[in-house]
């Protein structure tokens, strides 16, 4: 799981729910199936809810990592067309 | 089209739906819907389609708002008494959602103007609720192959159906001709529970949005009947009639015609 190729990065630090999910969903729509989106965020609830939502959409969550006391990185691989 | 921050907020509950998403919301923003009648049905249909962000929303109505309309025609108000209904609804929908281009058409629909009025729109909504006009709209939509979402209300009962010309039956497959005027309640007799057009109009708006985003099953070939008193929804199949005078294999009706107006519009 180390050093996966990231196809798109989304920085939503400072964004709160539900716009964290809105922006993440739109970012996934903008990549191709098989490509990977990396999201960096600082809204604590979204660190739990975005991976869940992405799984519900049918995508794969490759990584959820707290990189410092306030920020998380989530990696999502698009698995299905929108 | 990129969403503005304001649009992201306004449409967030659509965008996060898997069946809609940003792509579906863009289809909604690009859609052009024409609603015939800004009365009991046209008001809720237009209200929800404006809220949903339908790009162009045209309203056709030649009547003025009266106090007796306000029991059910929710886009109008005491501030617009005497104002043309299409104009009154346009004000309401524009203040709800400035993204929407609302077009008020102050005309009564007839066999001469209908093709021209509907030709530039993707989906047509029948909110006129009177028989001759329902048949006229049906015929025009079959001729121009326009999807039509039709609704009707009376007392405590309402019905909805979606007509997809070329892909399912039309109104004349069910009854070839409108019922004689005497069989239909006159204006004085035609009561309706005020909330009923809200239920039926919301169902029509739902059908329109499903057609726009291309998700779910359209209500084609079926009449959905709602009985408010018995709290009953039932679906009646409308078989496609191969001999239908409008959409059958050898259609007898080749031009539009008007019937005298002895009917009541709710
Ligand atoms: Zn037919």
Helix content range of the residues of chain A, please? 25-40%
Radius of gyration of chain B: 18 Å
Mean pLDDT of chain A: 95
Helix tally of chain A?
Answer: 2
Helix content of chain B: 25-40%
Helix/strand/pairing class of chain B, anyone?
alpha/beta
Biggest sheet statistics of chain B: 8 strands, mixed
Cα-to-Cα separation, first versus last residue of chain A: 25 Å
CATH top level class name of chain B: Alpha Beta
Percent of sequence in beta strands of chain A: 25-35%
Mean pLDDT across all residues of chain B, rounded? 93
**Strand coverage percent of chain B:** 15-25%
Please state the second-level CATH architecture of chain A: 2-Layer Sandwich
Tally the structural domains of chain B.
1
Determine the CATH topology of chain B. Answer: Rossmann fold
Task: Give an overview in words.
The complex is a heterodimer of chains A (82) and B (266). With 82 residues, chain A is an alpha+beta fold. Chain A has one domain (8-77): TusA-like domain (Translation Initiation Factor IF3), CATH 3.30.110. In chain A, 30% of the residues lie in helices and 32% in strands. Chain A has two helices and four strands. Chain A has a four-stranded mixed β-sheet, covered by helices on one side. In chain A, α1 (19-29) links the parallel β1 and β2 (36-41). Chain B is an alpha/beta fold and 266 residues long. Chain B has one domain (31-237): Rossmann fold (3-Layer(aba) Sandwich), CATH 3.40.50. Chain B contains nine helices and eight strands. Chain B has helices at residues 5-10, 12-15, 21-30, 42-52, 85-96, 114-118, 131-144, 171-174, 196-213; strands at 32-36, 56-60, 101-105, 123-126, 148-154, 157-163, 222-227, 232-237. In chain B, strands 3-2-1-4-5-6-7-8 form an eight-stranded mixed β-sheet, sandwiched between helices. In chain B, β7 (222-227) and β8 (232-237) form a beta hairpin. The longest helix of chain B is centred in the last third of the chain and has 18 residues, at 196-213. The radius of gyration of chain B is 18 Å and the shape is globular. The mean pLDDT of chain B is 93. The chains are: A alpha+beta (82), B alpha/beta (266). Bound molecules: zinc ion.
